[in-house]
Design goal:
Helix content: 10-25%
Strand content: 25-35%
Shape: globular
Number of helices: 2
Order of helices and strands: HEEEHEE
Structural class: alpha+beta
Largest sheet: 5 strands, antiparallel
Number of strands: 5
Radius of gyration: 11 Å
Strand order of the largest sheet: 3-2-1-5-4
Amino acid sequence: MTLDAVRARLTAGDMLHMQLVDSQRVWWFEDPWEQIADGIAERLKAAGEIVELGDSLFGITGNSQSWTIGGGRG
């Protein structure tokens, strides 16, 4: 899935999900299910394009299970 495709799904209102599997972050959209590369999610996080919704794993900032479109492009 490309960066532009991820942005399009976020803009359409889809929520991005993250979970830890074998100490690695796995990112995906539901309905239809599509997995995205960790590097794309990290790029969106660094640019402030996605923000966490506060359901953080272990109470650690940056480990939320749900992410949505955020402030803007960097």
